[in-house]
Amino acid sequence: MALLTIRTYPDEILKKQCEEVLHVGDDERRLIDDMFETMVQNQGVGLAAPQVGVLKNIIVAAPEGPDKELYAFINPVITKKKGEFVDIEGCLSVPCSSAEVTRARKVWVEALDKKGKRITITVSDLFARIIQHEGDHLKGILFIDYLGFQARKEIIDCARKVKKL
Ligand code: NI
User: Fold this and answer.
1) Residue 69 is a catalytic residue
2) Cα 93 to ligand 1 centroid, rounded to whole Å
3) Ligand 1 centroid from CA 29, angstroms
4) Cβ(61)–Cβ(46) under 8 Å?
5) CATH code for the domain in which residue 114 is found
């Protein structure tokens, strides 16, 4: 396994649309293992492939914390959402940031697992939030895109400052 470099805002790759994975092979499994390691090392609860510079539809999640069970989803699609809730959200690609974001409370997800097997999963609360946040990364959307002008500006200014140091 290898620790990967996390791309941070305003890296252009974070705004790009990812591609569907047509075949789940050794390259994808290696990437997932490296993403697990990178997420855990950075105390993250989720990570998307573009955050490590790969434009593939792959996300990983650690809903109970980085030392508990880790999940990988390939080509994840949210097929249904229910309810909503507000909570503080942050992102490893947007340093020094956190803000309140409204997300669906419960989501139904279809994806492929590490073996290329089709899976469906229904999750709620933090796990649902992680999947929505990481799923957004695959479409080039960051959580700061949901914020008002002033909140967004403060986070962007801070992220740029951190990057220059
Ligand atoms: Ni993120």
Assistant:
1) no
2) 6
3) 21
4) yes
5) 3.90.45.10
